[in-house]
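Margin note: ligand = protoporphyrin IX containing FE.
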Amino acid sequence: MDYSTLFARPSVAILSTSITIWISYLVCLVFYRLYLSPLSKFPGPKLAAASKWYEFYYDVILRGQFTFQIQGMHKKYGPIVRINPFELHVEDSSYWDELYTGHKEYERYEWMSGRFGANTTTSSTVKSDLHAIRRAPLNPMFSKRSITKFEPVIKQKVELLSKRIASYTDSGKTLALNNAFNAFSGDVIASYCFGFCWNQLDSLDFKDNFHPAYEAVRKFAHLGLQFPIMFIVLGLSPSWVIKSVTPNIHKMFMLQRDLKSKITNIINGATQERDHPTIFSELLGSDLPTREKTLGRLGAEAQQLIGAGLETVAWALTTTVFHLVNNPSTLKKLQAELQEAIPDPAAIPDSLYLERLPYLTSCVREGVRMSTGVSVRLPRVSRDKPMKYKDWVIPAGTPVSMTTLDVLNDTEIFRNPRTFVPERWLDNPKTSEGDHLTRYFVPFGKGPRMCIGINLAYVELYRVLATLFRRFEFELCDTDISDIEIAHDFFVPSPKQDTKGLRVKVTSVKVY
Ligand code: HEM
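Resulting structure:
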């Protein structure tokens, strides 16, 4: 007798019943999402409304393309679109203030807040009251006054950067300035966090910087967002497996371990005297509730603070320097201003003085606008009350987002938005509607979740740009706009995958 058929028949029956139930469930789910959901009245592609696999396809398979796909949806469906079964997106620059500054009770979207595997950091905190508790002890450290006190350290790092760049003049070697900027901003933010840094500015060709590790995590985050279990898998995998499969993510694990040991040293009082306060000494000494001072939470906070401080500033510098070197007439105007304002190139004044230089200020602002900050959408959720957009009533609990990229490239506000025109910021300009242009300057976000590091970022940007363009002449080397323009959204804007960075030759130096 053939026993196998006895067992095979019931298992085939169970399998086919399960498949039928599963398919029926999917059909009902899609029907609900398309026709019965409170969001079904909002315009947008049916496929996107039916399933998150749509976003998966654009962000995971096509690698960071969903942000552009959303722009395409707006062209077809108008200023408000349903971008997935649960979310709406608005492309209307005049709505920015309402969404981000009008309601301090708006929360982050829980699903997206864990995209880097940790949802206990200040920036990933969902609830607005808990966010305020976590942000409160950080605020004084990032005030203009505190950053001014920290400026001597920034100055010292800029001087080191400048000295290293000068060493490329005689050698005629190509210099990847993007690496230099990543090393610089990494050393600055690490010093502010711990009074210690990894001296990446001293590394060979500035290659020992944290950018590849953060970039790997950001790229992974699109997958992690769709399948949060991937973070658990990563966390449980043996170190040697991660190291051989994805060495850059392994570097992030090593950094995380290092950051925790720095925090443990502060807790144990095993740190050296510093001549400036540090973020983590202040955080640990603050009246933040004890449950908020766990090693796990502060380790994640350190990782995110370093990433936030490193990548945005380095990218803003890379973008601004590229456009200046690529536009000789614009660069000439900046150099003329710097020469007059800074007679001795060896003595670069402090940022309070530099911020009063109009053309430099316009270059900084235009560079930050074009570098965008973050390229991903920034959702907000009104938990209890419906939101309103024009005549649309948005059900409470619905995540609604806008993208800084859209506002900063809105052709109604910024003519030829992908052209570097510092002049657009001169003389208190207004839009054709009579609004101050600065209303639409949103690369740092706005409202209670706005970038906390804006003052630090500005001091870095002013000092580096004034120093480099008062002291050096650069020539682009095998670098063009495709090495700078956004081609992928990996949370922050990323150029084409095979870019070799912003490569220059240093052709002249005025000090040393
Ligand atoms: C050019 C430089 C920078 C740009 C364009 C930028 C942009 C942004 C943006 C767009 C946000 C999100 C705002 C939102 O969710 O609405 C943000 C948040 C944040 N940024 Fe920056 N950033 C820059 C530099 C820095 C620096 C130097 C630091 C220092 C550590 C920093 C730390 C943070 C933190 C901690 C948050 C989360 C704030 C919160 O949720 O309360 N950023 N930044």
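The chain is about 55% helix and 10% strand.
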